[in-house]
Design a protein that fits this description.
Number of domains: 1
CATH superfamily: Dimeric alpha+beta barrel
Radius of gyration: 17 Å
Oligomer: single chain
CATH architecture: 2-Layer Sandwich
Helix content: 10-25%
Strand order of the largest sheet: 2-5-1-6
CATH class: Alpha Beta
Order of helices and strands: EHEEEEHE
Number of strands: 6
Shape: flat
Number of helices: 2
Distance between the termini: 26 Å
Strand content: 25-35%
Length: 132
């Protein structure tokens, strides 16, 4: 079963103001993520993992009545959290996806203490192939 694990980071000037972290703290955080990803690869569980640009770079696009893109800043300026990155894992059980999400949640913060940030876990649904 495939699951998407989405890392939700807090907005504002709190623990996630990663641009304000010391170089050593940032290096430790990134090293944690690299090690975690390598472990997932070795276990044959990693399908995809990506970090995302900061929310100020996000845009919401909707089609106008003529089909042209209408682009606005977004997605949610009043949100308290934003999607910082994601993993797609292929695991045997939901419980395993939860275990992996807990590991990702414990990435070190600016003082080395685990951030324990929210990781949303959702099953990736599959659909029957479309015949052409």
């Amino acid at each position: 079963m495939r699951y998407m694990m989405m890392m939700h980071a807090p907005r504002g000037n709190g623990d996630w103001a990663i641009g304000n972290w010391s170089p050593d703290a940032l290096k430790a955080h990134i090293q944690f993520m690299h090690t975690f990803n390598q472990e997932l690869v070795k276990a044959g569980e990693l399908v995809e993992a990506q970090g995302l640009a900061m929310p100020r770079e996000a845009r919401v696009v909707r089609a106008t009545k003529t089909g042209e893109p209408a682009v606005t800043d977004g997605p949610f300026p009043e949100a308290k959290e934003f999607l910082a990155g994601f993993w797609i894992v292929d695991v045997d059980t939901t419980e395993r996806a939860y275990q992996l999400a807990a590991r990702a949640s414990a990435a070190p913060g600016p003082t080395g203490v685990p951030l324990n940030m929210a990781i949303e876990v959702r099953q990736v649904m599959s659909v029957p192939p479309v015949e052409v």
